[in-house]
Amino acid sequence: MAYPYLPGSGTEAFKGVSVVLSVMISLGSTTIVGQLFSGFMLLYARVFKVGDFVRIGDVEGTADAQGLFATRITTPWNDEYELNAHIERPVERIAVLTALHASIQDAFNEHGVQIMSPHYFDDPKSAKVVPPSQWFPAPARRKAE
Question: pTM score, two decimals?
Fold first, then answer.
């Protein structure tokens, strides 16, 4: 209704810009509208309810919240993070995994950061960090560098 009263609305440039903006808004909103309809389908088809154990894609866990745009899932391990890596020789997977875990522990210890278990509920009085002098107690041996 206000279009004819906008300054310059009768020019070809204004008409062209408004068509381009309309197309951009239409195309940009298709994703939002699609997600909205998917959310409605999940809510009203009652495929699952909060508290159910579900598998969505490659994630399994308990559905904690269900909304129009997002469904929150807690995995059995209470994960909020995951490290994925690729190695060139899969036969070395165990050795590489062991070295990776050792490096992660060493890096955390060097910076005085305590590694917490996902099932951790209470803070100790002092940090449980292993000092460098105790990183290789007997019979462990320091790896060659």
Answer: 0.39
